[in-house]
Amino acid sequence: MQTTAFKVSDLQADDGIVSPSAPPPQPPPAGWYSDPEGIGLRWWDGRQWTQHVNIAAATAQSEPPPGSVPLGEGLPASGGGDLGSPRRSGILSSVVAVAVASIGIGIVILATSGSDSQATYSECRRDVQPTLTAMQGLGSHLNVGVIESDYAAEVGDVQATYDRLTGKHPATACQPVVRALGEAMDAYAQASSEWNECIFSGEEECAEATVQELWSNADRSIATARRRLNSLTGGADAVAVAESEAAQVEADALAKEQAHSALVAMETYATDRRGSYEGATPAKLRSIEPTLPPSLEVKEAGTEYFSISVGSKGGNWFEIDREFGGELIFKCGEPGNAGCPGSGEWG
């Protein structure tokens, strides 16, 4: 199977999005391959072995890609051993099917050829382009005198365009792009709400700093979406990484739902005990809601407060704390990773 990689010099800019041309054959790209030590999969970064090992997955091997540089020639090894040895030179070969188990998620991903990777990129670009185009008009409107009501209408139009995108259910590898656009959409919607609040309160001057910051957040999210889209031109491995990230986001979304279910169970538990959460345990909460996962933890439980946490199969965790006075705080373990926002707060 031919593996295709792309270089920056082979790409032409088109409104921040790249279009691949026919690239020369390259050595196998970064990815999960059979570990030389025989303990599952080890991550090859395109130049050398790394220390990242996945013992839960296995990989099928084939001959090296036609025209590629034989691995082991001039490539340093990491983690011991000689890549130039006969045993190791065949390790990093073209992969037909890679069983990816990313941080505990058991997923089977079929590695695609360079042409299939290009098709994935093209399909994702076609799906997201209307939303990207619609968002271009939602810049710093305060600088050009657009009134809030007009801006709110524009935000509604862009939201409708984004909703049509999500309604198409883009391919798994495109989901990280869609998620970044969703974060931009949230920032735009919040900017509209904040702007309206400032006007309603008679403090229009508060809008400039608050709303401009939200627009900056949206700009960063859009830039992230473009980077993720362009990364799909990187070949089969780039598609596999995007699919793995999408799977982790899905796992995190499930953990969030389970955390909310645990919150409802905790409130039900307290209702039967005159409002006290004291004595709550995962087992007692499961007697109320049997679908709660084994990863549920009750870290604290007092008369007026509690702290519960649910672990995601993607490696993240999602916590809900009730403080004295009834305020709920939603925290997650890996800010900026998959389903955990960069702020470290969710909900």
Describe the main β-sheet briefly. Answer: 4 strands, antiparallel
Number of domains: 3
CATH fold field value of the largest domain: Four Helix Bundle (Hemerythrin (Met), subunit A)
Q: Count of helical segments?
A: 7
Question: What's the architecture of the largest domain, going by CATH?
Answer: Up-down Bundle
The CATH class of the largest domain, by name, is Mainly Alpha
**Secondary-structure element series:** EEEEEHEEHHHHHHEEEE
Q: What spatial order of strands do you see in the largest sheet?
A: 8-9-10-11
Molecular structure report:
The chain is built from seven helices and eleven strands. The chain is an alpha+beta fold and 347 residues long. The longest helix is centred in the last third of the chain and has 36 residues, at 236-271. Helix 2 runs antiparallel to helix 5. It has a four-stranded antiparallel sheet. It folds into three domains: 8-95, no CATH class; 115-234, Four Helix Bundle (Hemerythrin (Met), subunit A) (Up-down Bundle); 251-332.
